[in-house]
From TrEMBL:
Pathway: Lipid metabolism; fatty acid beta-oxidation. The lineage of its organism: Bacteria, Pseudomonadati, Pseudomonadota, Betaproteobacteria, Burkholderiales. One of its GO terms (molecular function) is (3S)-3-hydroxyacyl-CoA dehydrogenase (NAD+) activity. This is 3-hydroxyacyl-CoA dehydrogenase. It comes from Rugamonas rivuli. It holds the Pfam family 3HCDH_N. PANTHER family: 3-HYDROXYACYL-COA DEHYDROGENASE-RELATED (PTHR23309:SF51), 3-HYDROXYACYL-COA DEHYROGENASE (PTHR23309).
Length: 695
């Protein structure tokens, strides 16, 4: 059953019932329309109340129906709203907890709306690159006024029902201790005979001088919405509520909605929305897999990552003990955490009370005995197998049975690390990204022997820490860094062939990346990549790299931390200034290796950087390191600044068309350092079959 029908005296009560949030899927819509018809046919019924069971009035469209023909099957949401609005008996929406999107649009089609305080009221469609398509843009301004409705529709942000009491949106907001259904029924009895039935569509949006306000809104919204068309379309459709007759405004809304739903930007946002949800699902780890309780955490190493990782636990209210080798390092790590929170407090984003609470949850130690009772320990010591071995052997000795032993390693073999313990089933990788207290991504590395309950616990923990958890198998670099390595290699080869750092960075930034590879290198520290390459020269001599980055490091230019890298930096200024000596070094290097420099187009730069990642990702998928293409997109959207409006590298490749991607790769395979390009078999196969990674 997706909507229940009951009669209370002379009032019919239709209760939407489609957990978790009474999404208005086909079955729910059908049952609601039937309910209204049944009430109309019953002479004993004088009025109708529509409400929602459980935790919502209605969260809006049923996301399970997104992109499916069911969404358009009759009765559509439009039909349901029209059925309510044209009812000859008054219809009262009784709102509580959550009333969003199509749910709010349905309520706006009802003759009256009553609500509990504290209900979240929103039209969040803009967050998926859309606009409210079932009358929301025309009806909300008619009850809230132009300005408030426009703000809600353009931002998608929820507003609490009590804040909207006194507007024409609500006929009554009940007291917090009221019983919603009986209060709504009493309200319905009171208005049962009142005629004519009030309809939102008949109201006028009264806003003198609206053109000036609308123009101001267009300018502001345009400046803020970057590459996304939806916010401005929201302004235009809301504008129609003032400038057009209701029916014409509805037609205009429909037209703009159908336009937006076809845009790549909206498709990318919807892809990311679903990708995030599906990422926490692992086929052989069912949703009912037991998890272990995480009430106490420990972090080994109070350096850059350790401090940020600890803050995640503190933010979630989980006490943390930090362990270091030296008191000095421990003090420094704890002081950094305090400083970070103090800065947040200064910005007004953290109260003194919360600050005190968080700082009270963190302590430090030099003794392993003090962490033995933790439910999870996250190791974030130097990236060195010898050091990791010492730590994990010790953890195996001291940690209580059932504790999860997690490593933050970026490149080392997790299975080898697990092998240092007698409990490899308890060992897992939790790869945080820097700054760990800010970045959303958590790569969860599943070792060959990691227990299913341990994996399920890590996935649940990622949600608790407000991270996007993505599962990766064990390989060099896991999903994210393994792909970025190809991107970095191409960036180096481009320098050898004729590009300079500034051109490469600008091309990639124009594509939408937050930062190009060279500015990124300067920020992260060029010495880190240097150390990795030095190891690779020995371990994997078959992999070619441009030597330019090594030459840069030999000049002592490690990046922002030394005030100089690919670019120059000035104190107190993050701007990157091109450096003549560096550029001369690059040009000289081309001559030294006998490459005649040529002009390289921005398109080639972007294609080589992005497609090299896509090709590596196809290997990653084929090897089962990533479970699905959308997981790879999540890694790049949440951990590497890949432009959201392009939906992630795999979604982007699908948009371009895999045959086109493959053709470009084959072309580059004929060029300088062409050996770096070997089309992944999966890419070739999908391109031949006319499929995409996400199809
Ligand atoms: N920095 C990054 O951007 C980043 C991102 C993801 C993962 N990682 C990984 O996180 C780990 C830590 O990196 P980091 O950048 O925080 O390094 P860091 O050098 O800033 O911090 C390491 C800390 O570990 C301490 N330490 C060393 N040996 C120890 C031991 N035996 N017991 C206890 N403490 C010990 C050191 O005193 C130091 O404070 C590495 O495995 C690294 O690969 C780093």
């Amino acid at each position: 059953m997706t909507a229940e029908y009951q009669v209370h005296g002379t009032v019919a009560v239709i209760t939407l019932n489609n957990p978790p949030v009474n999404g208005l899927g086909l079955a729910t819509r059908t049952a609601a329309v039937k309910g209204i018809q049944q009430a109309l046919a019953d002479d004993a019924v004088k009025a109708i109340v529509i409400t929602g069971a459980g935790k919502a009035f209605s969260g809006g469209a049923d996301i399970k129906e997104f992109n499916s023909p069911k969404a358009l099957t009759e009765p559509s949401l439009h039909t349901l709203i029209a059925t309510a609005e044209s009812s000859t008996k008054p219809v009262v929406a009784a709102i509580h907890t959550v009333c969003m999107g199509g749910g709010l649009e349905l309520s706006l089609g009802c003759h009256y709306r009553v609500a509990m305080p504290g209900a979240q009221i929103a039209l969040p469609e803009v967050k998926l690159g859309l606009l409210p398509g079932a009358g929301g843009t025309q009806r909300l301004p008619r009850v809230l006024g132009l300005e408030m409705a426009l703000n809600m529709i353009v931002s998608g942000t929820p507003v609490l029902s009590d804040k909207l009491a006194g507007t024409a949106l609500f006929d009554q907001v009940f007291a917090a201790d009221a019983d919603l259904v009986s209060s709504a029924v009493a309200f319905a009895e009171k208005i049962a005979d009142a005629r004519p039935l009030p309809k939102v569509r008949d109201r006028k949006v009264d806003y003198p001088n609206h053109e000036a306000f609308l123009q101001f809104s267009r300018n502001t919204v345009k400046a803020m919405s970057g590459p996304f068309p939806a916010p401005l379309e929201c302004v235009e459709t809301v504008a129609a509520s003032v400038t057009m007759k209701f029916e014409d405004g509805m037609k205009f809304e429909r037209e703009r909605f159908l336009h937006l739903i076809q845009t790549t930007e909206s498709k990318a946002l919807r892809h990311a929305f679903f990708a995030e949800r599906v990422a926490s699902k692992v086929p052989d780890v069912p949703a009912d897999t037991p998890t272990r309780a995480i009430k106490q955490a420990a972090v080994i190493g109070a350096g850059t990552m350790g401090g940020g990782i600890a803050m995640n636990f503190l933010n979630a209210g989980i006490p943390v003990v930090m362990l270091e080798t030296r008191q000095e390092a421990l003090d420094k790590g704890l002081a950094t955490i305090r400083k970070n929170y103090e800065n947040t407090m200064k910005k007004g984003k953290l109260t003194q009370e919360k600050f005190d609470q968080r700082m009270a949850l963190v302590s430090g130690t030099l003794a392993y005995e003090d962490i033995g009772q933790a439910d999870i320990v996250v190791e974030a010591v130097f990236e060195d197998m010898g050091v990791k071995e010492t730590v994990f052997r010790k953890l195996d000795e001291v940690m209580k049975p059932g504790a999860i032993l997690a490593s933050n390693t970026s490149t080392l073999d997790l299975n080898q690390i697990a092998g240092f313990t007698k409990r490899p089933q308890d060992v897992i990788g939790t790869h945080f990204f820097s700054p760990a207290n800010v970045m959303k991504l958590l790569e969860i590395v599943r070792g060959a022997q990691t227990g299913k309950d341990v994996l399920a616990t890590a996935l649940a923990l990622s949600k608790k820490l407000k991270k996007t958890g993505v599962v990766s198998g064990v390989c060099d670099g896991f999903i994210g860094n393994r792909m970025i390595e190809q991107y970095s290699r191409q960036a180096g080869f481009l320098l050898e062939e004729g590009a300079l750092p500034e051109q490469v960075d600008k091309a990639v930034e124009k594509f939408g990346f937050a930062m190009g590879p060279f500015r990124m290198g300067d920020l992260a520290g060029n010495d880190i990549g240097w150390a990795i390459r030095k190891r690779r020269y020995v371990e994997k001599p078959e992999i070619s790299y441009s030597k330019t980055a090594d030459l840069l490091c030999e000049m002592g230019r490690f990046g922002q931390k030394t005030g100089a890298g690919w670019y120059d930096y000035k104190a107190g200024d993050r701007k990157a200034y091109p450096n003549e000596q560096v550029n001369a070094m690059i040009v000289q290097h081309s001559a030294d290796i006998g490459v005649a420099r040529r002009k390289i187009s921005d398109q080639e730069i972007v294609e080589r950087l992005v497609y090299s990642m896509v090709n590596e990702a196809a290997h990653i998928l084929e090897e089962g390191i990533a479970l699905r293409a959308s997981d790879i997109d999540m890694v790049y959207l949440t951990g590497y600044g890949f432009p959201l409006f392009r939906g992630g590298p795999m979604f982007y490749a699908d948009t371009v068309g895999l045959p086109n991607v493959l053709a470009a790769i084959n072309k580059y395979a004929q060029g300088h350092q062409g050996g770096a390009w070997k089309p992944a078999p999966l890419l070739v196969k999908l391109a031949e079959e006319g499929k995409g990674f996400n199809s």
